[in-house]
Structures are given as structure tokens and as C-alpha cells.
Amino acid sequence: MINVLIIGAGGQIPRYLIPLLQEQPAITLTLFSRHAARLPYDGMRKITGQASHVPDLVEAMQGQDIVYMNFDDKRITEAVIDAMHQTGVKRIIQAGVLGVYGEVAAPFSAWNSQMLGQSVATNRGIEALEVSDLDYVYMRMTWLYNGSRQEYVASPKGEPFLGAQITRQAIAQFVTDTITGKRQDHRASIGLWEPGSEYKAKPDFY
Ligand SMILES: NC(=O)c1ccc[n+]([C@@H]2O[C@H](COP(=O)([O-])OP(=O)(O)OC[C@H]3O[C@@H](n4cnc5c(N)ncnc54)[C@H](OP(=O)(O)O)[C@@H]3O)[C@@H](O)[C@H]2O)c1
């Protein structure tokens, strides 16, 4: 069995991810949220807590194999890493942002910078993960939308970031592929976009 803890389970990506993981007989899910009672899932443990509060995290992490963190904040990532050290959990997948290395390429880079400004790429979880001893996968996700496409391009650190959009369904597929071992990324920072969205000046939905 693989025990998976989802932190930020009330977010939009988990609406796609949780059903995918529920299809996997070898996976047991625990959901951690600021409002766990609102989560519309049966047959799994649900914990209400603050992700910035290490004791809440330590309680939720007992016996877990992998943490999926559905948001990206350096200070809270450091709290999650602290709790992982206290509980012996080694693996984490984090939903993060594009541009943390200034890697976004033209023509998309102009629109992306205009929309986000420069500040988005600093104080991110990747800064804490890269100096940790953990087995992490940090997802540098491009602009998200809700749709049924499942395909993704996974771009390693060091390559230019080319894609302008991706579905939350495809992100959920990438996370599932990582958890189930279909993908083997370790201590990796992966750019994610939809095939065919390379060299767009902006997402189609803007
Ligand atoms: N929209 C885009 O184009 C885009 C692109 C790249 C990255 N992202 C980022 O990707 C992440 C996942 O996407 P999504 O669509 O699933 O986002 P979302 O619907 O905003 O979900 C994020 C969840 O993370 C938890 N969370 C966020 N900030 C928190 C905090 N300070 N303390 C504790 N929990 C916190 C909350 O979970 P609970 O409600 O369960 O507590 C929240 O529902 C988000 O952080 C988003 O900003 C978005």
C-alpha cells in the first residue's frame, strides 16, 4: 500500500486528483484541509488543520509515504519539511509555479510577466526543497484551466519553459503517474504544459 497525504485538499486540482487516486487499489488517501468537513469524499480520513502549524502536520503525517502539497509558499513548505523530518516521510510532490529560474521563453514570457509581475517567482517552495534532503518533485505549472485533456509535456530543469496552458486534469494525471511509479522523477523540478501550447503568446482562454 502507498499512503498519500494531500495538503490543501479543498483546492481545484484535488477535485481531479482525488478521483484518479481513488481508482488505484494500492493507494490510501488522507485529506488535510483548513475545512475538512466540507470535502465531499467518503471512505478516507479527513483532517482539519493549518498547514503552517507543524503539530497539525505531524499528526497528519504519521504513517504516510508521500505528501502532495497543493500550494506553494516557502514558509509553509519549510513547516511541511520540518514535519516530514519529524515523522520520517521522505517524498513530496508540490504544486508550484513557472518562472522560478527565469526560464519562461518568448513570446509567452512577455504576457506572463505582465500578468504576474516579477515577485511570483520568489519565496517559493522550491527554494526550501532544493536545499532539503527530501525526494521531491516540484511542479512548475503553467496557466491552469478546467478541461478533460490528460496529456502533459514534462520539461526538466534547465530547459526553456515554452507552454502557455494546461488542464488541472493533466496535472492530476502527472501527480498520479508520479505516485504510482509510472514516472520516475526524483529531486526534480518539472515544467508542465499542454502539448501544442508551445510558443503561444498567451493561453487560449485569455
Ligand atoms: N491558476 C493558475 O493558472 C495557476 C498556475 C500555476 C500555479 N497555480 C497554483 O497552483 C496551486 C494549485 O492550483 P489549484 O487550482 O488547485 O488552487 P486552489 O483551488 O486555489 O487550491 C489551493 C488550496 O491550497 C490550500 N492553501 C492555499 N493557501 C494556503 C495557505 N496559506 N495555508 C493553508 N492552505 C492553503 C487550500 O486548501 P484548503 O482549502 O483545503 O485548506 C486551497 O484550497 C495554487 O496554489 C495556485 O495558486 C495556479
TrEMBL record:
Residues 8-180 form the NAD(P)-binding domain. It holds the Pfam family NAD_binding_10. This is NAD(P)-binding domain-containing protein. It comes from Candidatus Enterococcus testudinis. GO terms for molecular function: biliverdin reductase [NAD(P)H] activity; riboflavin reductase (NADPH) activity.
